[in-house]
TrEMBL record:
FCP1 homology domain location: 168-336
GO MF, one annotated term: protein serine/threonine phosphatase activity
Native organism: Dioszegia hungarica
Transmembrane segments: none
Protein name (record): HAD-like domain-containing protein
PANTHER family: UBIQUITIN-LIKE DOMAIN-CONTAINING CTD PHOSPHATASE 1
Matching Pfam families: NIF
Length: 342
């Protein structure tokens, strides 16, 4: 709904993939031969083919597009099958298979996912109502309830420790801010066509100073943390003398893709699970957290805590200089402190 120009994202549920989720999940213990060595893999039946191929990449540094798997299943596991549940492949538990492929470090092909490429993909998605399947063995679930996604959250919690810059304060709520096109115009920031402080959304520092008495502030971006922190310093959000502090930042390493359907076709997009923060700071929860983003797909696992605002892409233009979104947002966020709905 709209609150003074600010869109509060409703709790939408996903259209599930054709492959149904197994309530009693089977785990596959597999052995893979590659380059004269044997590798042990453990794959959940609810995992996607994407997860399986990514696990192989982590072990061998062979990217998915170069992996040729022999003796695993019928047909080629191409990227078009990324959204298929592993349990639907008909793989026999305990099987040994062979992988053929060249590690990325041994090739001359450089795969780059720059921040500019990441931000070029600015589609968004809303999750529609879900029909529950009848039967005891299977059910169709929303992204937040998918056992595969829950497992991925735990993997992020274990593998991505949080580096705190300013200790969270007892009794304060959590405010998670997306960086790209939410509080800064990323394009001129990346290109260097405008000074960093001019890429910031108008009213940014006033907004942060207004909410800071009530919220601890976290910035979550799809870019690498080194770039992220350096830009926050240039913008003046870190290391300045403002009347607010940033508790910590999170980057793309703490995100992962989820799989669902859009327009009847399988697709994947990355998400930002707030449970990643809640695990380290249990005084935060769904009851006292807000995630502000220009893309509602980013809070697919926490739709009730998501607050979508209009993207900011007009830095240096008259429209950009006249942007009032953060003024409206500050008023709404502070007026909602006593509400049980956030």
């Amino acid at each position: 709904m709209d609150v003074d120009g600010v869109e509060k994202t409703p709790v939408f549920e996903a259209i599930p993939l054709p492959e149904e989720v197994s309530v009693k999940e089977e785990f596959y213990e597999l052995r893979m031969g590659w380059s004269g060595k044997i590798y042990e893999l453990r794959v959940g039946g609810n995992d996607m083919v994407y997860d399986f191929r990514h696990q192989i990449e982590v072990l061998t540094n062979v990217p998915p597009e170069r992996q040729k798997l022999i003796g695993l299943s019928k047909g080629k596991l191409s990227s078009e099958m990324d959204s298929v549940r592993f349990g639907a492949l008909g793989v026999k538990n305990g099987i040994k298979f062979t992988m053929i492929g060249t590690p990325e470090a041994d090739s001359f092909v450089y795969r780059s996912e720059t921040a500019k490429q990441q931000q070029a993909d600015d589609f968004d998605v809303r999750y529609k109502a879900l029909a529950i399947a009848k039967g005891e063995a299977v059910r169709l679930v929303a992204p937040a309830d998918d056992p595969r996604n829950k497992r991925k959250i735990q993997e992020v919690i274990r593998s991505c420790p949080i580096t705190v810059m300013d200790d969270p304060r007892p009794g304060k709520r959590l405010l998670v801010l997306d960086l790209d096109y939410t509080i800064v115009d990323t394009k001129p920031l990346l290109e260097g066509s405008l000074p960093a402080d001019e890429c910031a959304r108008p009213g940014l520092h006033d907004f942060l100073e207004k909410v800071y008495p009530h919220y601890d502030i976290v910035v979550w971006s799809q870019t690498h943390w080194r770039w992220l922190e350096s830009k926050l310093v240039e913008i003046g959000m870190i290391g300045g003398d403002r009347n607010y502090k940033i508790s910590f930042v999170a980057d793309r390493t703490s995100m992962f893709p989820v799989f669902t359907q859009r327009d009847g076709q399988p697709f994947k997009h990355e998400v930002k699970p707030l449970a990643y923060f809640w695990a380290s700071f249990p005084h935060w929860s769904a009851k006292n957290s807000i995630h502000i983003d220009d893309l509602s797909r980013n809070f697919a696992l926490n739709p009730g805590e998501g607050l979508k605002i209009r993207a900011f892409k007009g830095a240096g233009t008259p429209d950009g200089l006249g942007d009032k979104e953060l003024i409206k947002l500050g008023n709404y966020v502070c007026s909602s402190i006593s509400s049980a709905s956030i």
